[in-house]
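Q: Nuclease HARBI1, please. Structure only.
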Amino acid sequence: MLSEVIGGEDGAIVGISATQTARHYCQINVTVPVLKRFFYGEDTRPDFRLGREAIQVLLGALQTERQHGWGPTLETLVFLFWIATGSAYRVVARVFGMPITSIHRMVHRIAEEVVAVREKFIRLPQTEEELLAMGEGFARLAGHPAFIKAAGAMAVCDHQGRFIDTYMGFPGSVHDSRILRNSLIYLSGNYPPPGYFILGDGGYPCLSEPMALITPYKRPLTSMAEQRFNTHHSRGRSIVERAFGMMKTRFRCIFLEALEVHSEFVPKVVTACAVLHNICIGVGDEVIVEDVAMGDDPPPERECGAESRKDILPHQKEEGILPLSSPLSYSHSCSCHCSSACPCSSHLLLFLHPHPNLAWAGGERAHDHWR
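A: Structure for Nuclease HARBI1:
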């Protein structure tokens, strides 16, 4: 009897036997093609949507011992196959030659374990150095030193498209501003830090408390300054659109097809996808995504815009953010001429962007004028 199957250094399948005094567990068919793909060193992406290195990182993070059953390696592979294909439990059961009840239990157990290690892979920046690194990354990404960071009420991402915070649970029919008001980032008021503020799309209100949030100018625009501001607003959103696009491409069956799971399980599945996405970004296992076309802003709630941008932006200026012109203006008003390493670019703003299940984000540096 085999308690687990692992790959040896020479690529051979190695069986670890275990003596069970009460009963025997889980005889594994090592000739299952999907298992041979993993254990014989073949490309794992077609079946699991993750490369071998990313899978090993995940296995190392879970590190859950099993006293009985199929073993953590096989259970993780079953979960990855399910989340990669979106197949019904009965289909996965046929692929692995296991009972449907075992497949159901494995999928839910590993999903719980992946969500439990979420903070290892999804976390807010902890130091000023991390914030500055993100700032410089977004400056390079946008070709403008004022373009600093991307973030969202439900999912916050850095300049590499790696999620640094997630908030799941609301259905897509709930308005963006309500999701924001119920999110931890809003209720705690601890993020972004002082001197930073959030750029939200037209579906959010302008806020100064409990966090500073600025929305784009509504159409029709009345000046070139407003147009330039909105242009940079849109550029910031693109990085998060691409981050979501990568995750949607990798787990296409999860996001583009009906998922046969209970609604209460969906947030865990999406969170697990975000964790797996970050693991893949960390090991350089990325997928190619076509350029994302930016859509129109969602319709605002009635109270949106109750607080003026003019009340927020000068306040940020008092915090030390110098006015800086758009790259389209061919001039700089910052005294240091705003190189990519400009100290004033340590300040950031975040951009909230909605999705039917998630709110995503993009962002750039705030200015009190764009002339």
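A: Brief note, in case it's useful. Residues 1-25, 146-153, 312-371 have pLDDT under 50 and may be disordered.
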